[in-house]
Amino acid sequence: MFKGSIVALVTPMSSTGEIDYASLQKLVQFHVDNGTDAIVSVGTTGESATLPVEQHVEVVRKTVEFADGKIPVIAGTGANSTEEAIELGNLVQDLGIAGMLSVVPYYNKPQQRGMIKHFTAIADASKVPIILYNVPGRTVADLLPKSVAELAKHPNIVALKEATGDLDRLAEIKALVDDGFALLSGDDPTGCEFMLQGGHGVISVTSNVAPKLMSELCQATANGDAESARKIDASLMELHQKLFIEPNPVMPKWALYRMGLLPTPFLRLPMVEPEQESCEVMDNLLARMSLI
Prior knowledge:
Layout: E1 4-8, H1 21-33, E2 38-41, H2 53-67, E3 73-76, H3 82-92, E4 99-103, H4 112-125, E5 130-134, H5 136-139, H6 145-151, E6 157-162, H7 167-174, E7 182-185, H8 188-196, E8 201-204, H9 211-222, H10 226-242, H11 250-258, H12 276-288
Parallel strand pairs: 1-2, 1-8, 2-3, 3-4, 4-5, 5-6, 6-7, 7-8
Helix pairs in contact: 1-2, 3-4, 4-6, 8-10, 9-10, 11-12
């Protein structure tokens, strides 16, 4: 179910910080039109950290409404409190979502046993499939391959978003889990090689800006066409990298603003708009890629 090009969608906001649902609808249609395989709503790129629960749930609800069955929606529901993650899951699981993305608990640095118990409790309480999300660059805690293998035995834990960018780790995890367990890259610069080495897809920041090329890249890897996949990836590599010259989602929002898909690049504090130098770097790249 979870494969191919999955966008980690930004959450559009007005210049005063309200959720911009008209722009959200435009973005959802943009991905339908350009072949994106699924949407992650209110993940890290969707500024989950600064959306109160009511807004978080409403953004998921409206994303599903705008998708209208044309593209699956995965809800970001992670928290560093197991109880909070379960409560948030309970609020969104009946909205028509295809699954939930649950991040490794951040800040409190749980042990491996603690993470296994955390995700098991979430999966036990959920009506929809769970995708584990390992991103130690943000969470500090690192869900190790043996823990992934233990969790993969749970019938409701069906996939992993692995954002370390470590391709050796992919091989280690593949050797420990069944073929039906979906392995998704969370690192755009290594996503192509991740898929060519046996991964099933990528939850992508780059797909916000270049969804058609990311869709074509993922399709080429699925077809075993390594030459075409690497050629497309090479054309995207600078974008993969430049989208992170400031903390995500600062540059994706700027790029979408410059492409005319957002009326403003507003981010909620403590995130702020990019420095002028970063804007110029991105504008030059978008122009060279004929995106503006």
